[in-house]
Amino acid sequence: MNNASIGERLKYQRKIKGYSQEELAHRTNVTVRTIQRIEKEEVSPHLNTIKLLAVALEIEVDDLVVLTNPKDETLKKKWLLLMHATPLVGLFLPLLNVLIPLFLWIHKREDNPIYNEHGIKVINFQITALILAVLSFVSLLTIEKWGFFIFISVVPICVGIIIFNIIYVVQKNKCYYPFSIPFIRLNKNQLPTLLLLFGIIFFCSCSGPKLETLERLDGSLITKDSVTRKMNQLMEDAQIHGMAITVFNNNQPIYQKQFGYKDYLNRIPLTDSTNMYGASFSKAVFGILVMKMVEKGVIDLDTRLESYLPKKMYEYEPKTSWHDDFSTLKEDSLYHKITARMCLDHTTGFKNYRWFEEDYKLRVHSEPGTKFGYSGEGFIYLQVVLEKLTGKGLEELAQENIFKPLGMNNTAYEWKSKFENDYALGHDENGKSLKKDKDNEPRGGGTLETTTEDYTKFLTAVLSQKLISEESYNEIFSPHIKISTVKQFGEEANIFTDKYDDINFGYGLGWGYFETPYGKAVFKEGHGSGFVHHSVLFPETGKGVMIMTNFEKGNSIFKEILEVVMKDVYTPWEWENYIPYDKR
């Protein structure tokens, strides 16, 4: 029957079924006269007539259609292959799995009934697959354990069905798409359906997960609402009443939110423009500033700092209340070996601050450059040398090189009168407000006044490698000294362990350093006057988290925040003394 005319095919199929012309006419609502004229080849039947006859005879439309040109068979296979195969593009460009076959169907459906039939089946399946993909994503976020398996199984199953039909259509000119929802039907007015279809596609394109989810280190997603709920739950359980968080994806802040109060006693809300004491967040900014000075040729990382000055450090008359007074170093035999690198990686040998000395006299306790010992005094020492070299104070240098270029208009190393209208109070372990310290002189190690909005700008610039060169960032974000102590502070800061060897734990220049399966991580914390902060960046992934709180026990939920928001289980939280609130 391959070369038979449509009349001969119709007669052949009618007789196989045992139908008379009258009975076939009754089953199709096609007149007997029309059937007679088709079988006598007196007319060329309309496409809809052929469809009706095929349905009544329980055969494919293709079994009645005559190809007048042998090349038409090859051309038909190519068009069918195109309809069935092009949805695979949707693996790389979402929605094209529906749009491409839709356009092909609209273009070809009137040329041959088989195009119309196959196009409808492909489109119905691809829309169903799109809906399944969305539902599987929802299950990933809402169903423990099984949601993950549902999510990863949808795509392979759909791709398998597509590949099966590509082979099936080439061999048999037929297709089979199970589970398809019949959005488009044969023998129906398709205008309302097409409008509904475009509406579904538009909705899917406008309601994608990117705007409402965060991607974590392992590639898993978490909704912003889930983060908000978790933050509220943790803060309530731990009785912490003021906190702000920023989460970074693709080097940009994707989630920023403030919780609780800047003044808990009076229930005054915390906002992104509220001034917050930055504590040792100061050191991260200072590290970038120093590298800027290195790039300008003002200073070198490995030149002994005292060699830049015409006099010994202890010979200079102090100009501040205390921090530039180095007179006690006259009796010290090691301080002159200190370099900028040692100040930034905490290997000067100074204690954290001189008031931790029994006699309040600054001195070096170990050979500079050999041992990690967290020290704000090292940053002050380097700051004073820079100020003498440039003739400019720390505040002026920071404004020129960092704060103004980044638009950090509410940030300074000293208290400004404009902060008076909106600033946060620190709170002790019991939630009692602490007096705000407003008379600090600028110090690179710990007097930063900022806002969550401004410090987010700073960390965004760091992730995006602005302000300084890539080479300088690589210098900062490298381990210059290994850390092998149990804790950062206290008695256990003198007890050694191999616990952190697996993460290559150490310190860079102004930033802590460790390694993860997702690349290196750099962190900086801050603590003082009732404020506790933590930031960690993963430069190779463009991800990170910043947490700022004005409650002394705020760090009791840092560990869980990092794990939930970023799947960060690598931060050395015990070394940081971030003991969870329910284990204290």
TrEMBL record:
Gene3D superfamilies: DD-peptidase/beta-lactamase superfamily, lambda repressor-like DNA-binding domains. It is a multi-pass membrane protein. The keyword Cytoplasm does not apply. Keywords: Membrane, Transmembrane, Transmembrane helix. It comes from the Bacteria. PROSITE patterns: HTH_CROC1. The chain crosses the membrane at residues 79-106, 118-140, 146-170. InterPro entries: Beta-lactam-related, Beta-lactam/transpept-like, Cro/C1-type_HTH, Diverse_Enzym_Activities, Lambda_DNA-bd_dom_sf, MamF_MmsF. SMART domains: HTH_XRE. The keyword Transmembrane applies. Pfam families: Beta-lactamase (PF00144), HTH_3 (PF01381), MamF_MmsF (PF09685). Residues 10-64 form the HTH cro/C1-type domain. It is found in: Membrane. One of its GO terms (molecular function) is DNA binding. Residues 430-450 are annotated as: Disordered. Residues 430-442 have a biased composition (Basic and acidic residues). This is CubicO group peptidase, beta-lactamase class C family. It comes from Flagellimonas zhangzhouensis.
